[in-house]
Amino acid sequence: MFSRPTMQLSVRVCRAMPATTRTPSKSRLLSLSAARFAEIEKKRLSDEVPRAAPAPKNVANDKRSKVSERLQKRASKKAAMTLTPKAVEHIRALQHSASGPKLIRVGVRNKGCAGMSYHLEYIAPGQEGRFDERVQQDGVEVLIDSRALFSIIGSEMDWQEDKLSAKFVFNNPNVKDACGCGESFMT
């Protein structure tokens, strides 16, 4: 059974606690004999049900959920460039008329009066750059060259036809200055 020093130790612990935090059961235990205290303590410990350890997290599922959250955020973000219905129709016609499946990449080249001009090119699927931005709208897909992304972001791509010309026109909110003919711009 318990020796007297053990009883004194428990008394010291209880006395160290403020009187407001003592429960009646602890006060009552102080007045009991050491044998009775040991008996009550043994019963209390045997009545406690051991709790099971929490189930380990499934690391694979946790990673999958984080990846799916990132994909949802990415899918819900605003597209880097929007396409007008006329542009979608013309891109669709260009992709079907080209020999084999082709993608259109929009880029920017350093040329023209104001400094930069838009550049469009066909590329084969699988030839896109690692960091090229994909814009999917109404069943067509256009790539934006990663080096041109900051110049093009937020733009609207439109197809315009008149008596003298037919061309893609970019309505770009980032343009600070443009040349007189409208072929080149500066951001």
Strand content: 25-35%
Order of helices and strands: HHHHEHEEEEHEEEE
From the spread of the alpha carbons, the general shape counts as elongated
Query: Which secondary-structure class do the elements indicate?
Result: alpha+beta
Give the strand order of the largest sheet, numbering strands 1, 2, ... along the chain.
4-5-2-3-9-8
Q: What is the mean predicted local confidence, pLDDT?
A: 73
Rg, Cα atoms, Å: 37 Å
User: What is the CA-CA span between the terminal residues?
Assistant: 86 Å
Major beta-sheet overview: 6 strands, mixed
Instruction: Extract low-pLDDT stretches.
Output: 6-14
Helix count from the secondary structure assignment? 6
Helix content: 25-40%
Number of strands: 9
Description:
The chain is an alpha+beta fold and 187 residues long. It is 37% helix and 25% strand. It contains 6 helices and 9 strands; from the N terminus they run H-H-H-H-E-H-E-E-E-E-H-E-E-E-E. The chain has a 6-stranded mixed β-sheet with strand order 4-5-2-3-9-8. The chain is elongated and about 110 Å long. Residues 6-14 have low confidence and may be disordered.
